[in-house]
Amino acid sequence: MKKLAILATTASLALAACGSTDDASTEAMPDTVEVAADEALDSVDEAPVEDPEALPPVDPADTAPSAATSEAAADEAANVAAEAQSALDALDDIEDAANAVGDAANSVGDVVDGGQ
User: Whole-prediction pTM value?
Assistant: First the structure.
């Protein structure tokens, strides 16, 4: 009976140490960082203004790629795609050769096993 009482006391103390007195229905409060930032901006009276020199106007004709540049990029992309397909085809050929070597090794193994 003493063991049960000690166990119950230990369990209740452990739960009390881990527990919180906060009520789940209490509304969440903003973090102290947000409150400090709001207080720091209380003295600011001016509204933000646009700086016309920050991003000067740009004529789209000056920044748009030319037709020749676009065609060259498309041709290069087609070349890369063709090289990738060639590499995949070579990989298929290597896989076929590896399978043929495996089949030959199995055949040799069958002959060796059958000869005993």
Answer: 0.40
